[in-house]
């Protein structure tokens, strides 16, 4: 069976994505791998806790999800990959939880992610990267 690569994308941090592109392209060439991109957008229960009714923000949520999907597609277009081997996933919630869950669901062979935002230079691993490295059942490539 062909390999499955999971590539979590923070759509607000293009610099992080730039770092992983050559690595994803190299891995994708092996065994005709399928590349699963995942963008997690922030959970809206946070906004609800400020007393905004869910119904009043619901249209906004839909708009934001549509915009996020568009950003994800634009980002994926920067990778040189065969279109028929790309899968897109987008969910709302906590990035690390969804990255680990999707890795299990698709039975990923490897997760490829960047270590942290350049602005957070005191940390060698960001919070999501650290949780993925610690808890993933498959191999993880942390790009520095
Ligand atoms: P930092 O804490 O410096 O932002 P992170 O650990 O959050 O570092 O980011 C490292 C990697 O985690 C990113 O390159 C990306 O692969 C993944 N990641 C972070 N946020 C998200 C998100 N919202 N959706 C999908 N992946 C994410």
TrEMBL record:
Q: Which CDD domains match?
A: USP-like
Q: Cite a single Pfam family from the UniProt record.
A: Usp
Q: Which Gene3D superfamilies match?
A: HUPs (3.40.50.620)
Q: Where is the UspA domain?
A: 1-144
Query: What InterPro entries would the database entry show?
Result: Rossmann-like_a/b/a_fold (IPR014729), Universal_stress_UspA (IPR006015), UspA (IPR006016)
Summary of subunit composition and partner proteins: Homodimer.
Assigned protein family: Belongs to the universal stress protein A family.
Question: What protein name is recorded for this chain?
Answer: Universal stress protein F
Q: What organism is recorded for this protein?
A: Dryocola boscaweniae
């Amino acid at each position: 069976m062909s390999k499955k690569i999971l590539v979590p994308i923070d759509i607000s941090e293009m610099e992080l994505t730039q770092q992983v592109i050559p690595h994803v392209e190299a891995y994708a060439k092996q065994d005709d791998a399928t590349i699963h991109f995942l963008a997690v957008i922030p959970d809206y229960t946070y906004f609800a806790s400020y007393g905004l009714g869910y119904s009043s923000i619901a249209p906004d949520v839909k708009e934001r999800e549509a915009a996020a999907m568009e950003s994800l597609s634009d980002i994926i277009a920067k990778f040189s990959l065969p279109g028929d081997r790309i899968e897109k996933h987008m969910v709302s919630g906590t990035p690390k939880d969804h990255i680990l869950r999707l890795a299990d669901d698709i039975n990923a062979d490897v997760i490829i992610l960047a270590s942290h935002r350049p602005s957070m230079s005191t940390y060698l691993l960001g919070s999501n990267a650290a949780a993925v490295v610690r808890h993933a059942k498959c191999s993880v490539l942390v790009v520095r």
